[in-house]
């Protein structure tokens, strides 16, 4: 069949279309007629066309079940097609009327109704759609909005040229449909559109699709089939380049096939060498890159900008900076004038290799060339010279922002571009030379280079050296850059505010960070975890009233706000440290408990937080804080507590929590109903010495709970039993001491809360037992391995 032929539908197929419309209206697919072939979504078409109309039901029913078109479009296909005909001013049997109606339906986004109309016209008049461009639009719309199977059913009713099939294959590849690509190729073979030189677009589309779908071996087979079909000639280097690009995922196969084609007489061009070098860049294969260069010299291929640029990246990604300099020397020897992209690649290579001094040399040469080019342009066009450009660039930054937005910057044709400025500043920041990065930023402004938010963000990052105290003038410099950025008409992004929040944290200026956050929300900048974590650090590091509550509000906004962000471990650590610093131990423990549900929390810092909170709860008789500690430690009863798997700090917190429970019981009933058993581990069922036993015994001794020898040296060394009478005596002494202290002071002592000042616990204070706990700090007990 010729490539542009139209297949005809039998007249009896119209009944099948009407049956399709009725079945779609009933929301159920119609039964297939006897003997009709079963089809999948992307099936191949049979040679006979008798089943074409019934086969059209499958994509229609699939479209209806997926809710793609709606009842008014799919279930009433015949009605919509008839309505479209009634609205046409042209005669019923006019080809122009059919084209006009289908074009209107495609403009309205209703390709499935257009397919109904075309099928009805085909069944009634045996007329297909002879407009190739409109046929391509219909097929592509069906692939994009329905599936490849729907397009396959329509292809016999439209002008099936190689260009239409090639466009359909490309659309199927964009949908990542390998089965659709194969089905369309099968259709092209059956329709006779895959043989001869005219079929080259079809095979090129197949090779590109298989390469995009990561099928290099199938792409190689498709190229072999293309040669067998007579669609490729030895002089067609463009198709060879497409094949090599499709084989890029297998670099060994790519080079092997390229060498075979060279031996068969194929002459590589610059694109061929660039394709090979690009694969070497991704694979970081210097050896094969040098092989490609040797082929380039043997075949007399002239390199271009892409060749040199890719070579620089090959050596840079492989960590061979000497190779980068070798490419630079080759540029000079060949008389090739470096382009802005080449300069940018050189700067990035220097940054990756830590060769900032060499980058400085390149930057100096770029400035000289940039000034010379601007001076030459000014003299040739009668415009401003380089001096006048510098003078003009010292105006308000709003003028530069307008130039950037309008794309009419005076340095648009210069050597130094925005990407080169960002590359140089990134290298300076990565090397820790922040003042040099700011100098590059100012030099770019003086040269009239249009800057965007990226350059300003890099300049903001350079305003502070990490690990050093932020000076007041550095913070003012950052705010000045922020004001210039806004006055230039540039929109700050989340990275801008993250950097500013970090600077406020280094300067302990949480109030400024809160004001910036308010402005961030007014501008509609989308929040992310990094920005809000930096904000938490800034607010938490600032002393003053209301800061702990502000930290909690920020954290709750992150979790429950519009963005519904998921805090990472750094976020939890920052918020917990801020609340602990402010003395809000109950809130810090609540966040700690949430972190344990999502992230590992075996750090001694957080175990120390639990111990400090337990001491505070025992000393201040804070029931809410004690319950928070009990929840963290998993304590539900004071009769028996298992300390297995706890470190020394966690065991300390658990013991203090148990003593707090016993203290509440004594205050309520006047006594203790049972002994307290502490399971320290490594008892009768274990080998070796107990791990936390000595720590627990030392803690009880500091609390003036002198245990009898049988309590420490009982039959089971993995348990410490505190007798009931000993607990009652200790608690009685505590009550008497409190009454005596209250009589001397003329009243009850004021109880402390979980939000008391400081995070160091009760240093030398009464921690629930006479004598208190030494130091009261979490560091009083060294970190111990788990039991």
Automatic annotation (TrEMBL):
<feature type="compositionally biased region" description="Low complexity">
    <location>
        <begin position="385"/>
        <end position="410"/>
    </location>
</feature>
<dbReference type="InterPro" id="IPR036063">
    <property type="entry name" value="Smr_dom_sf"/>
</dbReference>
<feature type="compositionally biased region" description="Gly residues">
    <location>
        <begin position="753"/>
        <end position="779"/>
    </location>
</feature>
<feature type="region of interest" description="Disordered">
    <location>
        <begin position="62"/>
        <end position="86"/>
    </location>
</feature>
<dbReference type="InterPro" id="IPR011990">
    <property type="entry name" value="TPR-like_helical_dom_sf"/>
</dbReference>
<keyword id="KW-0677">Repeat</keyword>
<dbReference type="Pfam" id="PF13041">
    <property type="entry name" value="PPR_2"/>
</dbReference>
<protein>
    <submittedName>
        <fullName>Pentatricopeptide repeat-containing chloroplastic</fullName>
    </submittedName>
</protein>
<feature type="repeat" description="PPR">
    <location>
        <begin position="304"/>
        <end position="338"/>
    </location>
</feature>
<feature type="repeat" description="PPR">
    <location>
        <begin position="493"/>
        <end position="527"/>
    </location>
</feature>
<dbReference type="Pfam" id="PF17177">
    <property type="entry name" value="PPR_long"/>
</dbReference>
<dbReference type="InterPro" id="IPR033443">
    <property type="entry name" value="PROP1-like_PPR_dom"/>
</dbReference>
<feature type="region of interest" description="Disordered">
    <location>
        <begin position="738"/>
        <end position="787"/>
    </location>
</feature>
<comment type="similarity">
    <text>Belongs to the PPR family. P subfamily.</text>
</comment>
<feature type="region of interest" description="Disordered">
    <location>
        <begin position="374"/>
        <end position="411"/>
    </location>
</feature>
<feature type="repeat" description="PPR">
    <location>
        <begin position="269"/>
        <end position="303"/>
    </location>
</feature>
<feature type="domain" description="PROP1-like PPR">
    <location>
        <begin position="425"/>
        <end position="527"/>
    </location>
</feature>
<dbReference type="InterPro" id="IPR002885">
    <property type="entry name" value="PPR_rpt"/>
</dbReference>
């Amino acid at each position: 069949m010729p490539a542009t032929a139209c297949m005809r539908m039998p007249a009896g197929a119209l009944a099948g279309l009407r049956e399709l419309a009725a079945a779609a209206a009933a929301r159920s697919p119609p039964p297939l007629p006897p003997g009709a072939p079963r089809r999948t979504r992307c099936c191949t078409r049979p040679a006979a066309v008798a089943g074409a109309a019934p086969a059209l039901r499958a994509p229609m029913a699939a479209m209806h079940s997926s809710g793609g078109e709606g009842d008014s479009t799919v279930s009433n296909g015949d009605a919509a097609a008839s309505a479209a005909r009634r609205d046409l001013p042209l005669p019923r049997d006019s080809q122009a009327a059919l084209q006009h109606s289908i074009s209107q339906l495609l403009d309205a986004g209703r390709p499935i109704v257009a397919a109904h109309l075309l099928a009805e016209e085909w069944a009634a008049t045996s007329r297909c759609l002879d407009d190739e461009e409109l046929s391509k639009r219909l097929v592509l719309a069906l692939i994009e909005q329905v599936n490849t199977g729907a397009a396959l059913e329509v292809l016999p009713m439209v002008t099936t040229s190689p260009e239409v099939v090639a466009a359909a294959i490309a659309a199927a590849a964009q949908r990542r449909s390998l089965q659709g690509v194969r089905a369309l190729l099968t259709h092209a073979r059956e329709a006779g559109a895959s043989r001869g030189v005219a079929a080259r677009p079809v095979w090129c589309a197949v090779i590109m699709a298989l390469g995009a779908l990561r099928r290099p071996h199938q792409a190689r087979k498709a190229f072999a089939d293309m040669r067998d079909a007579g669609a490729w000639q030895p002089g067609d280097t463009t198709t060879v380049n497409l094949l090599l690009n499709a084989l890029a995922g297998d670099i060994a196969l790519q080079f092997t096939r390229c060498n075979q084609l060279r031996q068969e007489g194929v002459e590589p061009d610059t694109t061929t060498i660039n394709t090979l070098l690009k694969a070497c860049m991704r694979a970081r294969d210097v050896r094969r890159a040098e092989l490609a260069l040797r082929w380039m010299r043997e075949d007399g291929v002239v390199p271009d900008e892409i060749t040199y640029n890719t070579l620089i990246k090959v050596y840079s990604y492989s960590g061979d900076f000497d190779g980068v300099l070798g490419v630079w020397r080759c540029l000079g020897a060949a008389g090739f004038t470096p382009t802005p992209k080449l300069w940018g690649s050189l700067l990035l290579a220097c940054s990756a290799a830590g060769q900032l001094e060499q980058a400085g040399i390149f930057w100096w040469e770029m400035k000289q060339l940039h000034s010379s080019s601007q001076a030459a342009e000014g003299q040739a066009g009668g415009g401003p010279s380089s001096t006048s450009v510098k003078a003009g660039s010292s105006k308000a930054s709003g003028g530069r922002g307008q130039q950037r937005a309008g794309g009419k910057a005076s340095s648009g044709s210069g050597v130094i571009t925005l990407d080169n400025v960002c590359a140089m500043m990134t290298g300076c920041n990565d090397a820790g030379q922040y003042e040099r990065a700011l100098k590059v930023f100012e030099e770019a402004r003086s040269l009239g280079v249009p800057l965007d938010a990226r350059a300003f963000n890099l300049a903001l990052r350079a305003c502070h050296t990490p690990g050093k105290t932020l000076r007041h003038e550095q913070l003012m410099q950052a705010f000045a850059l922020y004001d210039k950025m806004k006055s230039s008409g540039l929109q700050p992004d989340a990275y801008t505010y993250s950097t500013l929040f970090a600077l406020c944290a280094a300067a302990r200026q949480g109030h400024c960070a809160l004001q910036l956050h308010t402005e961030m929300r007014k501008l509609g900048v989308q929040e992310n975890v990094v920005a809000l974590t930096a904000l938490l650090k800034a607010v938490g590091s600032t002393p003053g009233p209301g800061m702990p509550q502000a930290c909690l509000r920020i954290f709750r906004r992150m979790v429950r706000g519009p963005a519904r962000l998921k805090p990472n471990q750094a976020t939890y650590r920052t918020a917990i440290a801020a609340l602990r610093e402010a003395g809000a131990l109950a809130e810090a423990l609540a966040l700690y408990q949430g972190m344990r549900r999502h992230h590992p929390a075996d750090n001694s810092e957080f175990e120390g937080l639990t111990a400090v909170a337990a001491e505070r709860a025992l000393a201040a008789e804070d029931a809410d804080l004690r319950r928070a500690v009990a929840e963290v430690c998993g304590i539900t009863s004071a009769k028996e507590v298992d300390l297995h798997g706890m470190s020394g700090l966690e065991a300390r917190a658990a013991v203090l929590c148990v003593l707090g429970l016993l203290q509440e019981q004594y205050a309520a009933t006047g006594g203790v109903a049972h002994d307290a058993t502490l399971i320290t581990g490594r008892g009768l069922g274990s080998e070796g010495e107990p791990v936390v036993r000595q720590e627990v015994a030392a803690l009880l001794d500091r609390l003036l709970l002198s245990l009898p020898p049988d309590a420490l040296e009982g039959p089971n060394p993995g348990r410490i039993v505190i007798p009931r009478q000993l607990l009652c005596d200790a608690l009685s002494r505590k009550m008497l001491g409190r009454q005596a202290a209250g009589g001397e002071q003329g009243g009850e002592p004021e109880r402390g809360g979980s939000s008391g000042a400081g995070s160091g616990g009760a240093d030398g204070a009464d921690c629930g037992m006479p004598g208190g706990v030494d130091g009261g700090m979490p560091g009083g007990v060294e970190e111990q391995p788990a039991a």
